[in-house]
Amino acid sequence: MRIVYALIVLFLIACIAFARWYLCDIRGLCTYEAATHTTEKTVAIVEILLMLLVAFLLGFAVAWLLRDRAIRSSYHQLSLLQKEKTTWHEQLEMLEKDNQSARKHLAEWQHEAHQLAEQKKELTATAQQAQEETETLKRRYNHLKEETDSLRDIITELKKQPATSTQTVAPTAPPPISAEEKAAILKSRFTPTTWQTRDDLTVISGIGPVIQRKLNELGIYSFQQISEFTPELVEQVTDAIKFFPGRIGRDNWIGQAAALVRYRK
Predict the structure, then answer these.
(1) End-to-end alpha-carbon separation of the chain, Å?
(2) Measured distance CA(74)–CA(130) in Å, rounded
(3) Angle between helix 2-20 and 38-160 (nearest 10)
(4) d(CA 43, CA 111)
(5) Mind spelling out the 3-state secondary structure of 7-38?
(6) If you placed Cys at 260, which of 4, 40, 54, 223 could pair as Cys (CB 3.0 to 4.6 Å)?
(7) What is Dmax (Cα atoms) for the chain?
(8) Can you say how many angstroms the Cα of residue 74 is from the centroid of all Cα atoms in its chain?
């Protein structure tokens, strides 16, 4: 802006110098003798004003042309900026759409991650339960294996014993005994000291509340008593409680009771 002002001042100084040069040197109106020629001075002043007007118009035209070029350049730059603005606006809309889609996918992934975490907890609990059941089955298998090995040893020893003579006199059949008498005889085999220990017999698979009550009526209250069952006692207990024949052996009451006794110790 200072350059413009400086050019205007230089233009004015040049106009004054040119007017003085034209009046004094060209027209000779600056001397005393020419002071009386007012008409010539007026004409000279009018000529100077006309030349200044022409110079002003020429300067205005040149300035207009320069300004018009600058304006056109500014319009061109403005149109480029508007196009660039439109492009950036479109890219911004695309980014907003991508951002919304990303947020939606993120919410879905978070939901899936939550579901996977819940499934992981359930699977962990199931795995722990399965592991506990596996350990229980292993222990039961080991107990059954020990009992099987023991039975095999007994069978082997029995096979080694000499066979008894078959020519023995058949014993006479004893008179029939009622169920009450059988229960009384069976109950008399257990001492009162064993009654002091009362275990929850329903822990053994195959014994329910009804069977437990019948066993208690026979004087059987503890795991220790069941673990000491002999084949004869098994048959007597089956007859006394009117249980399914062979069910005590199939459910392995003796092995389960022995395992519980060892576990308690």
Answers:
(1) 108
(2) 81
(3) 170
(4) 98
(5) HHHHHHHHHHHHHHHHHHHHCCCCCCHHHHCH
(6) 223
(7) 194
(8) 57
Residue type (1 letter), 103: R
Rounded alpha-carbon distances, angstroms, from residue 5 to 44, 53, 177: 28, 19, 144
CA atoms within 13 A on the CB side of 31: 6
Do residues 203 and 253 lie in contact, with contact meaning Cβ atoms separated by under 8 Å? no
Which residues 6+ apart lie within 8 Å of 51 measured at CB? 18, 22
Question: In angstroms, what CA-CA distances link 114 with 103, 121, 125?
Answer: 16, 11, 17
* Global pTM value: 0.32
DSSP string, 152-166: HHHHHHHHHSPPPPS
* Per-domain boundaries in the chain: 2-29+38-90, 178-264
User: CA separation (Å) from 115 to 108, 125, 189?
Assistant: 11, 15, 61
- d(CA 6, CA 67) in angstroms, rounded, equals 18
Give dist(CA 55, CA 15) in Å, integer: 9
User: CB of 223 within 8 A of CB of 257?
Assistant: yes
